[in-house]
Write a structure and sequence with these properties.
Helix content is about 25%, strand content about 10%. The protein has about 700 residues and is α+β, with helices and mostly antiparallel strands. It has two domains: about 130 residues, Immunoglobulin-like; about 375 residues, di-copper center containing domain from catechol oxidase (Orthogonal Bundle). GO terms for molecular function: metal ion binding; oxidoreductase activity.
Length: about 700
């Protein structure tokens, strides 16, 4: 997950401002092939434009063959004979439409679009003969040479990609034949989850639940070697974000490429279960416009959708609906794990064997829901570097924090009074990475598991709690939200407001603050669980897993590096993908006022969670008390040419791509990208005067 909260103060808020101009005419949308430099293909024509041009040149109609030997993606050559088709006047009299039971994709650069495993209605039209009485023959060479007769037919494509079509009309009154050579683009379409037909939404949730309930070892027997269950994806995410040196997936330039690719890999695993499904997106800025108190009031968290937003039982786990008692993998000692051997972030010392959620941190609402203003401000970014940072932070981080939450924090009253409740898990993680936070190697389920920052670790280096807090940026981050901390430029230090000259008070204050980050909270014996009125009623065989669990500080999955364990994780990142896709399109089209510099990078600021630090643990002997060597640098995985740690299928082949190659692939008009988004509109933000270039 994105472990960063960013202040929106100082961001350019364009809601209510005069929208930047957008041309009324259709703008050519370039398409790019996998691995090709987009700057070499800015002028490649689109199928829709080609058909219109050939139709005008030949006296009407809409012929659909490309006008050059290269495919619109700039990739392999098209083996059809486009020039002969242009010269053939017969093609000008025929046209076709392709529809299904959803609205057309209005922004699509392709004249004809279909979806895999969804029935497509193909209808022919002609300017000659009597179309209702004439004979039409459809030939689909890429679909095993299928031939179907009829003016209007229904056909189901099975794979994404460009599919050739030959349409032939035989005029019954004269015997004349007219032929059209064209193609249809087949892509999965990602839609907002609330706009899905009920049957499609159920199919999505059914496939999603299969990946959560069916382990990889069993799934490969049923669905093939490429099947992967949820534990695989959580392990992969933890391997990148839950390790000691740095975060290889978040807080730098690779944030979007990692999550776009990761989501596509998960989507393709779902499609082994049901090839008709695709991952929808959750446009969570809608909730902020509906005067809801929290995301929990949204239908998205109905029991049959993503389940209870903030379970009120002692263990903060869902107990009803399709996601009741989702298990966390146990005995995960060979993977990144917590002290109980659970597949969790190491610093999350929670022994609950189920997925957890909570809507507060330290009993406070840590942040607001994502608003249209925040979204629009990020969209106004003039460079990829700046937009990467806000996509990492304020545009989707609040969803993780508000869904994951934290409870039973140590020094909770102090945290609330000072006002840094959203920072605690983020600082705790950085203390661990820098070697100050000590976590037990192994704890038994039901026994207290304490983490701490042993004073001898820092005192032996001549450091005080204040020095430690400064070293992990905690005071700088906390000062963003706390009015009790002030920075004295004269003394070059942070001080407690009103106690500037009281050194004993300040020493106690900073020691208490450090303890709030280092101590996992309070624990209690078994009886405190058994006496609780909020112990969840569980199915037979599950209750024994809850007996003896400790009440100690815990963090919900969505607020940790094990965030993929929460099913809602998968509909969050396509929302950011869609926003970036449209921003890149406006920039490449040269729309006035919407220039966009796609130079690889990330704009770092002093926000909570962004450290810009890489720690080397190679020479640290476990248990020695030695500290890692930490430097300012870029974490591996965030450089433009770094290879991402997973594969996806592109044109039927498993490929592993670099960040640069992912940026090429995920451009929305790339023919090799298996999916498109249904629309690039944010109509719900219009009342706020927010402009998204539309």
């Amino acid at each position: 997950m994105v472990m960063t909260m960013r202040s929106v103060v100082g961001l350019l808020l364009i809601c209510g401002a005069t929208p930047k101009p957008f041309p009324s005419s259709v703008v050519a949308l370039p398409t790019f092939g996998l691995g090709n430099d987009h700057r070499d293909h800015r002028d490649v024509p689109q199928q829709r434009q080609e058909e219109e041009q050939r139709g005008r040149a030949s006296g009407g109609g809409t012929a659909s063959a490309p006008s050059t030997g290269a495919s619109p993606s700039g990739g392999e050559e098209d083996n059809t004979s486009p020039h002969a088709q242009v010269r053939d006047e017969e093609t000008s009299v025929l046209s076709l439409t392709a529809t299904n039971d959803y609205p057309d994709i209005a922004w699509s650069p392709w004249a004809h679009l279909a979806e895999p495993h969804r029935a497509t209605v193909l209808r022919a039209d002609s300017e000659v003969g009597n179309p209702d009485n004439d004979v039409f023959l459809w030939t689909l060479p890429n679909e095993n040479g299928a031939s179907v007769q009829g003016r209007e037919i229904e056909f189901t494509f099975t794979e994404p990609g460009r599919k050739d079509i030959m349409l032939t009309q035989t005029v019954t009154s004269t015997g004349e034949r007219h032929t059209l050579h064209t193609y249809i683009m087949v892509k999965y379409v990602r839609r907002e989850i609330r706009t899905l037909h009920s049957s499609d939404r159920v199919a999505f949730f059914d496939a999603l639940e299969t990946l959560y309930r069916l382990p990889t070892s069993e799934g490969v027997q049923q669905f093939g070697a490429d099947y992967k269950g949820i534990d695989y994806f959580v392990q992969l995410h933890l391997d990148g974000a839950g390790v000691k040196d740095c975060d290889h997936w978040h807080d730098d330039a690779g944030i979007m490429t990692h999550h776009v690719g990761f989501t596509l890999q998960f989507e393709q695993a779902m499609q082994l279960v049901d090839p008709s499904v695709t991952i929808p997106y959750w446009e969570y800025s809608i909730e902020a416009t509906e005067d809801l108190d929290s995301y929990g009031d949204s239908m998205v968290f109905d029991d049959d959708w993503f389940g209870e937003f903030s379970p009120s039982n002692d263990f903060h786990t869902m107990t009803k609906g399709r996601w009741a008692f989702l298990r966390v993998q146990r005995d995960a000692w060979d993977s990144v794990h917590n002290p109980y051997g659970l597949l969790r972030s190491p610093w999350n010392v929670d022994d609950t064997p189920f997925i957890t959620r909570h809507n507060t941190t330290s009993s406070m609402t840590a942040t607001d829901m994502v608003s249209c203003s925040v979204y629009s401000s990020c969209f106004a970014s003039s460079s990829l570097s700046v937009m990467n940072a806000c996509l990492n932070g304020e545009t989707h981080g609040p969803v993780h924090i508000l869904t994951g939450g934290e409870w039973h924090a140590a020094e909770e009253d102090f945290i609330q009074k000072v006002g840094y409740y959203e920072s605690v898990p983020l600082v705790t993680k950085f203390l661990w990475r820098k070697g100050y936070l000590s976590i037990p190697d192994k704890c038994e389920i039901g026994e207290s598991c304490q983490t701490s920052c042993p004073s001898e670790l820092y005192e032996s280096r001549g450091m005080t709690p204040y020095d430690v807090l400064m070293d992990v940026h905690a005071l700088m981050w906390t000062s963003h939200t706390s009015s009790s901390l002030v920075y004295s430029s004269r003394k070059d230090k942070f001080e407690v407001k009103g106690h500037e000259d009281d050194e004993p008070f300040q020493r106690a204050y900073f020691k208490k603050m450090l303890n709030s980050f280092c101590n996992p909270g309070y624990a209690c014996r078994v009886y405190c669980v058994s006496r609780s009125d909020k112990t969840p009623k569980t199915p037979r065989g599950v209750q024994r897993n809850l007996r003896g669990l400790q009440k100690q500080r815990a963090v919900g999955e969505m607020f940790t590096s094990a965030a993929p364990y929460d099913p809602v994780f998968w509909v969050v990142h396509p929302t950011a993908d869609r926003l970036l896709a449209w921003r890149r399109m406006l920039g490449r089209q040269g729309v006035e006022g919407w220039d966009f510099d796609e130079t690889w990078g990330y704009t770092h600021t002093s926000v909570v969670g962004e450290t810009g630090t890489v720690c080397n643990w190679d020479d640290v002997v476990p248990g020695s008390g030695d500290m890692p060597t930490c430097i300012t640098g870029i974490c591996g995985g965030h450089n433009e040419d770094d290879l991402l740690p997973f594969t996806v299928k592109v044109k039927g082949e498993n490929v592993q791509l670099t960040n640069a190659e992912w940026m090429d692939l995920m451009y929305p008009t790339n023919e090799d990208l298996p999916y498109v988004y249904d629309e690039f509109k944010w109509d719900h933000c219009s009342e706020d005067g927010c402009s998204f270039g539309t």
